[in-house]
Amino acid sequence: MTPPDQEIPSGRPGVAPQAPDQEATKAAFFEAFGGVRGMVETTVPGLVFVLSYTINRDIKISAVAALTISALLAVGRLIQRDTVKHAFSGVFGVAFGAAFAMMSGDAKNFYLPGMLYTLGLGIAYVATAAAGVPLLGLILGPVFREMLSWRTRNPGRKAAYVKASYVWGAILLAKSAITFPIYFWGDATQLGWLRVALGIPPFLLAVYLTWIILVKAPAPIDVIAEMEAEERAQKEREAARAAEAATEQGP
């Protein structure tokens, strides 16, 4: 008998969940969250800003320096014909922060858009998990070629996505709980170095815990493979009907 946690979910007959190549899947999984390069592009502009502001206490110079670094990183992606989404998402975030800081005259506001984004994303993870449509499943479904099949055909995997979404929500909300008090009652230098310190480690923790949860979950249903198999079967049926019609017509 198949163990309960490895049951084949109901779905199209003759097509079982496909366990993807582990190394390729790990690479795609990590890249879905931006990869190593994404972590660098997220961290470096903030690091440049806080270093510059610590030295010269000039908001404009620091903001322009951070924005310039972010733009150069984006140009590097474009030159290498990388994903446009990754190329511009960091620039927009840094640009908003730079604008907030210069318009308000408060260096702490450079970090405010990112902090609000983190808070909103943490709430979204928790809310979607509670609603039974976990955000992590929507993000990773295409990565594992399962799309939204986990919602109705793979309950064990849906439960894993719910659990992992709660993990992401908890980590992001904990990060917000640490940074917002410093925003309100600390100074810009303290906030800047704290943001840098809390950039990569929580992200790596969330990715690691998510991978551990998904490794123990039922395998994804490869709906792309299903569609390809159906297309091949349809072509074979059409070829068989054409051959049968030609035989009936005779010479």
From TrEMBL:
It holds the Pfam family DUF3159. The keyword Metal-binding does not apply. InterPro entries: UCP010219 (IPR016566). Keywords: Membrane, Transmembrane, Transmembrane helix. The chain crosses the membrane at residues 59-79, 86-103, 123-144, 165-186, 192-214. This is DUF3159 domain-containing protein. The lineage of its organism: Bacteria, Bacillati, Actinomycetota, Actinomycetes, Kitasatosporales.
